[in-house]
Amino acid sequence: RLVGLYSTCLRSIVHLAALARVTPCEETPTQCRRDNEGSAAALVAALRSANRTDVPVLFTSSREVYGGTDDGSAVTEETELAPISEYGRAKVAAERLLRGSLTRVGVVRLTNLYGRWGDWATRLVPSLVCRAMSGDPLVVVGGETTTLNLLRYVDAARALVKVLTMVEEGVAPDVLNVGSDEVWTVAQVASLVRTLTGSVSTVVEVARPAYVSSRYDVALTRQHEVLGGDVERRTVTEGIREFVEGWPYGERMCEERT
């Protein structure tokens, strides 16, 4: 409806709509496909109806499209797409649909984001902080054998704005991985949260399901070439410390959703 109303003055579109959770996507695959593939299909249909398939579109995809890299190698933008999760497969389908239907599409594949409380129960960092502050066990998947690439939401948003401008100007790369230069294990993140919160919570390691890769290492050479070196304005330690300092607000969110 919005595309139809504003078709004559549309400058560009950022597609953020998604069920961006790996485990919930495994539990509700139909909803996962509807929210990810379906939203892309709806956008394509609206732009076709408005005769505006030329509008620049920036699609936020995920590192999940690459699948597992258990050999320790870092994925690049040229790495073959081999998703092992419903979420990853849905993102691949959405990428291909948009590229095959629209004329000006840029794709950013984001890593693991953190920095907001609203979805704390299904996000690693806020869920660990909530549990640590409550003294509950910190449940981690994979422990020392599972790596993460963590990036703050605000840093990701800044990168998206820059890439969107490039898509509008026709100078954006077809695909860009956006993430952090740091690699952490899940166990290290849990340990950091315990330290920053002063918590005595125990850490409980659970087995990694088949749809979760043990490594999420991402090569960011192209990111540095295209966006420079200031995408990540805080180290992971600094970012999580700031997040913990927002606990008075986070506490209310955790209580409301318990």
Keywords for this entry:
Rossmann fold; 14% strand; four-stranded parallel β-sheet; 258 residues; alpha/beta; 10 strands; single chain; two-stranded parallel sheet; 10 helices
Fold topology:
Blueprint: H1 2-5, E1 13-15, H2 22-27, H3 29-49, E2 57-62, H4 86-101, E3 105-110, E4 112-114, H5 124-134, E5 138-141, E6 147-148, E7 150-152, H6 153-169, E8 175-178, E9 184-185, H7 186-197, E10 203-206, H8 221-227, H9 236-245, H10 247-257
Parallel strand pairs: 1-2, 2-3, 3-8, 4-7, 5-10
Antiparallel strand pairs: 6-9
Helix pairs in contact: 3-4, 5-7, 5-10, 7-9
Family: Belongs to the NAD(P)-dependent epimerase/dehydratase family.
InterPro entries: Epimerase_deHydtase (IPR001509), NAD(P)-bd_dom_sf (IPR036291)
Keywords: Signal
Describe this structure in words.
The chain has 258 residues and is α/β, with parallel strands linked by helices. The chain has a single domain, classed as 3-Layer(aba) Sandwich (Rossmann fold), CATH 3.40.50. Helix content is 45%, strand content 14%. The chain has helices at 2-5, 22-27, 29-49, 86-101, 124-134, 153-169, 186-197, 221-227, 236-245, 247-257; strands at residues 13-15, 57-62, 105-110, 112-114, 138-141, 147-148, 150-152, 175-178, 184-185, 203-206. The strands form 4 sheets. Strands 1-2-3-8 form a 4-stranded parallel beta sheet, with helices on both faces. Strands 4-7 form a two-stranded parallel sheet. Strand 2, helix 4 and strand 3 (105-110) form a beta-alpha-beta unit. The longest helix has 21 residues, at 29-49. The protein is globular and about 60 Å long. The mean pLDDT is 90.
